[in-house]
Amino acid sequence: MSNTQGPAPVVSEWAPLKARNVSFDWDATPLHWLPGDPATTHTINVLHLLLPAGERWFVHVYQQVLPYIRDERLREDVIGFIGQEAMHSQAHDDVLPHLKKLGLDPTPYTAQVDWLFEKLLGDRTLPPGRAREWWLMERVATIAAIEHYTAFLGDWVLNAEELDRRGADPTMLDLLRWHGAEEVEHRSVAFEVFMHVDGGYRRRARTWATAFTALAFLWQRGMRFFMANDPTILDGKATFRDFLRGGRQGVLPTTGAVIRSVPRYLSRTYHPSQEGSTAQAVAYLASSPAATAAETTTSGGS
Questions:
Q1: Confidence class for position 299, pLDDT limits 50, 70, 90
Q2: What is the mean pLDDT of residues 34-58?
Q3: Rounded to whole angstroms, how far apart are CA atoms 281 and 269?
Q4: What beta strand segments (E) does 27-131 contain?
Q5: What is the pLDDT of residue 260?
Q6: Cβ atoms within 10 Å, residue 60
Q7: Angle 13-17-20 (CA atoms, 0-180°, nearest 5)?
Q8: Which of 106, 118, 192, 296 is the most exposed place for a label (fewest CB within 10 A)?
Q9: SS3 breakdown of the chain: % helix, strand, coil, rounded to 5?
Q10: 3-state secondary structure of 44
Q11: What are the pLDDT digits (tens) for 214-257?
């Protein structure tokens, strides 16, 4: 393994990481939690399909890479990252029974996602040494690429004021912004782990291409699944036109913003701390109903 020297982080953007043991009550959340806009609702709902398995996979891979980390602060960051990602997985997983209760059973799609992360991207029977190490580095690099986009989405949702103006369900909005804030808070960890244990630019570019293609494919499939199986919509279809409309209206990221994120990640001077605001993320976490309730419960129990 090489420890390639990467771009310097913005020191002021670092914050110590901790998992917040949040919980959400979904009883009052409607199927279309963004009123009158099932297409946008289901575009964002794809997170609940992808993240439980995906973030369990993050945790599994990082537990394997921990022994390779020699920097003590980075090691502590990884432990905090693992705790936060495990909580994210659980929180999104808890939405799925509510969707099923409302008549939209996500099981057929989540079974495919579970297969992807557990089988296709899971551990392989490889001999100890270079082959096994290569597969670990491939997955570490892939996580760094995915985390670029989870941080991008986190920064977007923290600033998506149009969701408030449209009357988005407050519980769902808190889930999305609590999660988004923690993604911004820990946005540098995956990239720094990759740079610490490998850092090769060709691997970084190659795994970005794989991750971006896979995310785009899975997201559009998830949108189509939700729209086709929504019991309140007759002959529902997901269209790229709806995605473009959502971007123009401010309830989804714009296509232009997604495209502009690509050369930033592929730049040799890129560091995640250059994007988003830790101060904004921490400020939201200090006011989030779920996060503050978790903090009160933890303080009361200590």
A1: low
A2: 96
A3: 24
A4: none
A5: 95
A6: 16
A7: 130
A8: 296
A9: 70, 0, 30
A10: helix
A11: 999 999 999 999 999 999 998 889 899 999 999 999 999 999 99
CB atoms within 10 A of CB 77: 22
Q: What is the pLDDT of the chain when averaged over all its residues?
A: 93
Map tokens 């990467």 to a residue. 6
* 204-218 pLDDT tens trace: 999 999 999 999 999
CA 302 to the chain's CA centroid: 30
If phi > 0 it is left, if psi is from -120 to 50 it is alpha, else beta; for residue 2 that is: beta
Distance CA 293, CA 301 (A): 12
Q: Which residue has the tokens 């921490």?
A: 282
Residue written as token pair 């985390």: 147
Rounded to the nearest 10°, the torsion over CA 90, 91, 92, 97 is 90
Q: Which residues of 241-259 are buried (b: 16+ CB within 10 A; e: fewer)?
A: ebbeebbeebbbbbeeebe
Contacts (Cβ under 8 Å, ≥6 apart) of 184: 151, 154, 155, 158, 276, 277, 278, 280, 281
- The angle at the Cα of 198, spanning 126 to 136, to the nearest 5 degrees, equals 25
Ordered alpha helix ranges (H), 94-233: 95-101, 107-115, 130-158, 161-165, 170-185, 189-197, 201-229
Structure tokens at 53: 């398995």
Contacts with 20 (C-beta within 8 Å, 6 or more apart), sequence order? 84, 87, 178, 182, 285, 290, 291, 294, 295
Chain length of the chain = 302
